[in-house]
Design a protein that fits this description.
Keywords: ATP-binding, Glutamine amidotransferase, GMP biosynthesis, Ligase, Nucleotide-binding, Purine biosynthesis. It comes from Saccharopolyspora endophytica. It catalyses: XMP + L-glutamine + ATP + H2O = GMP + L-glutamate + AMP + diphosphate + 2 H(+). The chain is α/β, with parallel strands linked by helices. It folds into 2 domains: about 200 residues, HUPs (Rossmann fold), CATH 3.40.50.620; about 100 residues, GMP Synthetase, Chain A, domain 3 (2-Layer Sandwich), CATH 3.30.300. The chain has 10 helices and 11 strands. A hairpin with a 7-residue loop joins strand 9 and strand 10. It is globular, with a radius of gyration of 20 Å. The structure holds xanthosine-5'-monophosphate (XMP).
């Protein structure tokens, strides 16, 4: 029988077989998938693994601190944080096409990892082992939706599948490639990761970059980050975290609408709340959030986030909509 502990045992054995006594790095996104992938690989190969967290400037409020503090406390893993905000902002300047954004973010991610690997090797000195492997938390639905599964069309290039450069310098270790999200969570608990990490709602690798409809700029990111933090705070306060799969907040940066705030006319941007319920993200239903929670989120965002004068609700299921807007 395929129990969670047998999944862990089999996967650990497969990782040992693949990596042997060589070294690997793992990109942590702060999400469940990369955390569980890293914990599995650490169990398999111990300190042959170094985790790398890239701050690409597309993170949500508090995310970097959470990885640096909570994940390290839970696993004891060796972590290197790289500040790559300027690099990503430069690469994304002027880009509005969703697939182009995804490909740029995926490519820059890998380039930053390659640099991190070179730096780690330089630190290890001449006799330090070469880093040959890159660990990724790719799930089965990511594989399918990027056209890697049996017969599926390419819907989106998930950054960790479709966006890889052709001259990739690492072999990939993808221990979650056959698993769905609920299985990943069970594996995480089996490995002793805390509930705060295991039951975290999904957040895409390309981050807030695919939640700004239009060009990604530092100012727009700041606006979206503020709106997102409010929505998350209110959903948590209402005790709804475990009832919803995730609730992206999307900034319609290229759309403006007229409003009236304080003493006068405003010409600001709408945000969209996209609360969804799902088992595995392959399909999803829009979540019927209580009206008082929606009202509280709307009031706070329009009061506290200066560029936003309208809050809208996405009532589309998947299909036909995807969960993320880009
Ligand atoms: P979609 O928008 O395809 O999203 O319905 C399905 C689930 O996947 C997440 N998502 C991603 N996760 N890299 C990731 O790690 C990505 O490029 C990516 N794109 C979407 C999304 O948040 C949802 O949970």
């Amino acid at each position: 029988q395929w129990t969670t502990s047998s999944i862990v045992d089999d996967t650990v054995a497969a990782i040992r077989e693949q990596v042997g006594d060589r070294r690997a790095i793992c990109g942590l996104s702060g999400g469940v998938d990369s955390a569980v992938a890293a914990a599995l690989v650490q169990r398999a190969i111990g300190d042959q693994l170094t985790c790398v967290f890239v701050d690409h400037g597309l993170l949500r409020s508090g995310e970097r601190a959470q990885v640096e503090r909570d994940f390290v406390a839970a696993t004891g893993v060796r972590l290197v944080t790289i500040d790559a905000v300027d690099r990503f902002m430069g690469a994304l300047a002027g880009v509005t096409d969703p697939e182009e954004k995804r490909k740029i973010i995926g490519r820059e991610f890998i380039r930053v990892f390659e640099q991190a690997a070179r730096d780690l090797q330089a630190e290890a000195g001449a006799e330090g082992d070469h880093i040959d492997f890159l660990v990724q938390g790719t799930l089965y639905p990511d594989v399918v939706e990027s056209g890697g599964g049996s017969g599926a069309a390419n819907i989106k290039s998930h950054h960790n599948v479709g966006g890889l450069p052709e001259d990739l310098q690492f072999s990939l270790v993808e221990p979650l490639r056959a698993l769905f999200k609920d299985e990943v969570r069970r594996v995480g608990l089996e490995l002793g990761l805390p509930e705060t990490i295991v039951h975290r709602q999904p957040f895409p690798g390309p981050g807030l970059g695919i939640r700004i409809i239009g060009e990604v700029t530092p100012g727009r990111l700041e606006t979206l980050r503020a709106a997102d933090a409010i929505a998350r705070e209110e959903l948590t306060a209402a005790g709804l975290d475990r009832d919803i799969w995730q609730c992206p907040v999307v900034l319609l940066a290229d759309v403006r609408s007229v409003g009236v705030q304080g003493d006068g006319r405003t010409y600001g941007h709408p945000v969209v709340l996209r609360p969804v319920s799902s088992e595995d993200a392959m399909t999803a239903d829009w979540t019927r959030l209580p009206y008082d929670v929606l009202e509280q989120i709307s009031t706070r965002i329009t009061n506290e986030v200066s560029d936003v004068n309208r809050v809208t609700l996405d009532v589309t299921s998947k299909p036909p909509g995807t969960i993320e807007w880009e």
